[in-house]
Specification:
alpha/beta, Enzyme I, Chain A, domain 2, eight-stranded parallel β-barrel, single chain, eight-stranded mixed sheet, 45% helix, 551 residues, TIM Barrel
Amino acid sequence: MILIQGKGVSKGVEQGTLYFYERPDSTIIKGSKLGPEAEKERFANAQTVSIDQLHALAEKCLEEAGEETAILFETHAMFIEDDDYVECVLNAIEEESCTAEYAVNQAGEQFAEMFASMDDAYMQARAADIKDISRRLLDNLMGIVPGGIASEEPVILAADDLAPSETLQLDKSKILGFVTQEGSGNSHTAILARTMGIPAICGTGSALGRSYHGRQAYIDGETGEVFIEPDALTLAALKEKHDKQLEMKQLYETMKGLEDVTLDGKNVMLYCNIGSPEDLSAVINNDGQGIGLFRSEFLYLGASDYPTEDEQFEAYKAVAAAMKGKRVIIRTLDIGADKQVDYFEMKKEENPAMGVRAIRICLNRPEVFRTQLRALYRASAYGKVAIMFPMITSVWEVKECKRACQKVMAELESEGIPFNKDTEIGIMIETPASVFVADALAKEVDFFSVGTNDLTQYTLACDRQANDLGKFFDPHHPAVLRALKMAADAAHEAGIWIGICGELGADPDLLPTFLALGIDELSVSPTSVLPLRAELRKSIAKTCTLEMLDC
């Protein structure tokens, strides 16, 4: 037996094959060493594989999402065989003696640009389709596995670390758990694991080597232990813990349909954090009463170019409609720091966590902001959408955001496009500055939502991504909890509600403190809703104290 110690960041015990993530080489080389005929044959093979994939996706969508989505994939399959597109690729291979990859990339850019320049809005939207089919062809030419996991069976995914854009591309159905050499409890891999309700371990260092690829392992997301081919005694203990985990899960199932209320009648809204419409099933399965944080940046991280207004609208609309009148809080673009997007062409910063990120990008790039706001307000006609601005530090930023909202609403009204004029506007409290001026900010918005991950980072001067800070990164620190109290007091004095959407919201040890503070909403990973409801329903709010705020 081999034991590797890391840091548990998502609870649970799981067994499976260790599979090391391989980053694909997506470098496109122009000159071919094979010759035109061989490159044409490679292109034809990629066409066949791509069409088969799209037909399979269409069949799956027909069963799970309806005919409208299925038609999209069938249309993409037709595009791949389009005479003009194919001719463009083949001519480039013949005339330039280039690789099939280079020819496909050139054809994709040429046709996408052609569609984008057309006057008709429907034809403009086809530019995104061309980019998508070209990307699929390129992946198949380069041997890039869809979803990043070349295994028929689900696996325990191992890696040095995973960027947000990489976690977005993964085939979630094939992941039993995560183990990474680097990362922290606040990494996006950890957040994804908690959303999926699967165990995750980070910070194993070099002890987790690629030589373990294909070996059988158990991981314990609570203790941070990785057991490779455990002995009989250890195996028995792990199986017993796994069985108890299943028992608790069955017990929590009895919480479905019950009110989120304490024994003495204090109601707390238990909402969910999600990163994409794909997470909706987890929200519904765990009886989440709303979406407290939809991380819209994942629409940008998963794209090769700026997502269009229509692309964003469809995603927001899908979530709003699926929640059937329950509140859906969508955070505007929050990239920068650890979430980088190539096509934004951001300047390299020495300290990106304090640089141009989140709302600062939106206010510096008004057209990008306008596109998102239009999509958000259009989606507000299909459900109870609320808009939330991140990384706020001052009143003038909020006023600028509201001014941008007013302009977008005026545009939509003049165009006869329906939207909800009473869409709630909120901000994230995640900087000490926003805490200190919370009284003034509260007069400008409908709600606060505290991002405890960043609030802890900025309050304690601790990088939330650094795994070696250990006890120094302490979300329970009295300074963080006192900041929460200041924000809560300011919110309630102004007559608005306040929630928590950071990872701290799911901490059962802090529930009494949140009740004492009068926190109105807790937005957590979907799998944390039922355990939190169980704790809430046996709590007595009026007996809760603020003793944790003492040094």
